[in-house]
Design a protein that fits this description.
161 residues; elongated; 64% helix
């Protein structure tokens, strides 16, 4: 086996090992279909200790408890949605890595859009106001004194070149 083939085999092995880093062997279900569902569901729940990791990626004890809870509910025959509802009822919406759109999360989903629209409105109002004030102040034309000064400056520039 050549170097490139060995490297490719090693990288392929890492790709399969990395996702299983936090799940302990004693947690894995015997039924591959249920285990696949458990892994998929575990990616949807936030580790309440780490907060930026799914429970599938976290080594925290609470994440382990949640992984076991998910597997327990699946073995009892719950659907994926039933498991999600059960975990959310115990830990609240915060446990979801991707919060659902509801009355409680409308601010979370709407705030970025509202901030963008307010910022765009302020920028437009500022830009229009500034252009109007410059045009009003000068009347759109130079005064005789300003035209004389400009002509003088232009003559000075021509001499220097």
């Amino acid at each position: 086996m050549g170097f490139r083939q060995a490297l490719a085999a090693f990288l392929l092995l890492l790709a399969f090992v990395a996702p299983a880093a936090a799940v302990n062997p004693d947690e894995v279900l015997d039924d591959p279909a249920l285990e696949a569902r458990a892994r998929t569901l575990s990616l949807e729940f936030r580790c309440l200790v780490c907060q930026n990791q799914s429970i599938d990626d976290s080594n925290a004890e609470l994440a382990r408890d949640l992984r076991l809870l998910v597997r327990e509910r699946l073995v009892q025959g719950d659907s994926d949605q039933d498991v999600i509802e059960y975990v959310v009822s115990r830990y609240g919406e915060f446990v979801l890595l991707k919060p659902r759109f509801s009355a409680q999360t409308v601010l979370l989903w709407g705030a970025p859009i509202a901030i963008f629209l307010i910022g765009a409105g302020v920028m437009l109002a500022n830009g229009r106001g500034r252009n109007r004030s410059v045009a009003k102040a000068s009347g759109g034309r130079l005064t005789d004194a300003e035209q004389t000064e400009l002509a003088k400056l232009l003559k000075d520039c021509d001499r220097e070149v």
